[in-house]
Amino acid sequence: MRDIIRGTRRFISGLRPVKVPEAPARAFRDLWPGDANRGARLLRGEFESLGTTHRLDPAGEGASGWDTAAGPIAWRAAAHGFAWLRDLRALGTDAARTRARDLAEDWLARGAEDDLAQAPEIAAARVSAWLGHWDFLAATAEDGFRKRLLVRLAQDARGVVASLPAEAMHRGALVTLKGAIAAAVALEEESWMTRALRFLPGELERQFHPDGGHVERSPAQQLLAMQDLIEIRNLLHGAGINPPAVLATVLERAGQALRLFRHGDGGLAQFNGTREEGSGLVDLVLTQGQARGRAPMLLEESGFHRLQAGRTLVIADAAAPPPARARDANTGLPRGADRYAHAGTLAFEMSVGRDRLIVNCGAAAGAEGAWRDALRATAAHSTLILADTNSSELKEEGLGRRPERVEQERHEANGAQWLEASHDGWRRPFGAVHRRRLYLAETGDDLRGEDIIEMQEQGAKPPGFVLRFHLHPGVTASLQEDDQAVLLRLPSGQGWRMRANGARASLEDSVYLGGEQRRNRQIVLTAEAGQDTVQWALGRVTATGPGEAAEA
């Protein structure tokens, strides 16, 4: 570490003023599609990001969208990062181009000196966005605007390169490297490229587990990190530079890991800050990443499992949360890989064909604290919650108390699959360990589970607990008279029934933020204090007559 610090100081002291060109030396285009609906909202002065919307309007008076009071830090970071340019580009209109320039001018005048805007990962995201949208944003603009933009870009890039290696443990460090490489190509700064390439191999190994899973354990960040890798590869190829061999290896593994998180509809499972994401974008990323082959059934180091039989798919989280780190004292940005982590250890999702059946509630990482944390809570996941206490402590910058030991064991025989897992997230407050067993039959028509609270002190009795199974909004549910079963109907018309032993079944309202906020329902299995085991089963049913159903 001392060598890195000394090298950084020497690099900074040796930096010469950047010669600002009339235009970027090499043109490259942002690869990813924007969202025209979000672009239309930007035209109205509304910026939607990470599950929340606030004003971002260059014509606004008083406080601007760049101010500290404009919104939560995650939302403001996204605003300063300018990735929303692709949403305006998606509109393809002169009005969209004008709004992009007006917002950039407003940022130069009122947002550029914000401490958050100057954070390396935010500045790097902005450098990449400006260069990737140069034709849309600035190529035909008046000379003064282009010059102001390029001067600021060069200033930002100089600071980004000097900040390497990045301090963040999360994907922000990869974004910082990508911005440095993009600036080195566009401004023809060979020393910048040399420095970025020096740190790239080590960062790739730090960002990705050997199984290809990203360190944040988030399907959404897995997708974004793959996009970063593809852009870095393309930038280096376009500049005539051979990427380090580890880049191709990591990209291939990351693509396979991304496949594990896909449901039958092509979208992503909702763990740790993830929303569904459009299947089209996931397809595009896999194609651009040249990721071939079938989805793996488990990510050994990352701790995610995929149980699949017939048309039924279960995706389960069976590992400890990612590591923590103190937030940046100047900007308030989280630096740990747990920045978007949820208290959802041992949660699972289930789909049948293209229909999602059991889900987690989704995420709103850019929302105000109370709403954001409601979606991060254990109760917002399809798992067990003990005594209304989260399995991990939710904090602004990530997680506090958390499971320290998560064990998992998987078995397969004749097409049937078992997953046994446990976590000790409630050991400190209650002296308890949660054990979950999942069994998927070889036909895919029968999923069975057993949840156990194991007290570590001899003779101790567990407090009351509940199991929650959040249903996708497309699923209809009806409670059967004995309060021991719930009948479910999927959008395809297929029927399933949940039965429980050792708990009382009920139906409650829930909320779903896989995309736009929607109402849904959840099955709640309630175990009284002293009860330590609940068994449950989800089985496909077939209609046998009016109002009747039979097990398949």
Automatic annotation (TrEMBL):
Primary location group: periplasm
Short name of one Pfam family: Hepar_II_III_C
Keyword Signal: yes
Keyword Signal applies: yes
Keyword annotations: Lyase, Periplasm, Signal
Transmembrane regions: none
Domain annotation Heparinase II/III-like C-terminal: ranges: 293-536
Subcellular location: Periplasm
PANTHER family linked: HEPARIN-SULFATE LYASE (PTHR39210:SF1)
Protein's UniProt name: Heparinase II/III family protein
